[in-house]
Design goal:
Length: 105
């Protein structure tokens, strides 16, 4: 099976940029690069195996089809919805945030 095309929302792009900036400022370029690598790995996984993401927040927020994928070695979740011809990457949020409040916006 081939990977589905990923479509990143403006919010997801902004989330990633903010996290990279934070890691660059607080921990340096090497950690920021590792975060970028972790995001790229998560995106590849989502594109090739979207059903492996957790549906937990879909039930909590009543958003059918919403799934999340945790990043390896970083406390972030990628939220996405699989469509017939693509995967919509909705948000990339720190796992300790109030997800209902952040995703409800």
């Amino acid at each position: 099976m081939s990977a589905k095309r990923l479509v990143q929302s403006a919010l997801a792009q902004s989330d990633v940029e903010a996290a990279v900036d934070y890691y660059f400022r607080e921990a340096g370029a090497d950690v920021a690069r590792r975060f970028i690598d972790a995001i790229a790995t998560a995106f590849r996984t989502i594109g090739s195996r979207p059903a492996t993401g957790s549906p937990r927040h879909a039930h909590e927020l009543n958003i059918p089809g919403l799934r999340s994928q945790r990043l390896k070695r970083f406390p972030y979740l990628v939220f996405y919805v699989e469509r017939a011809d693509h995967i919509y990457l909705w948000r990339v949020l720190h796992a300790q945030r109030d997800m209902a409040a952040w995703l409800g916006e």
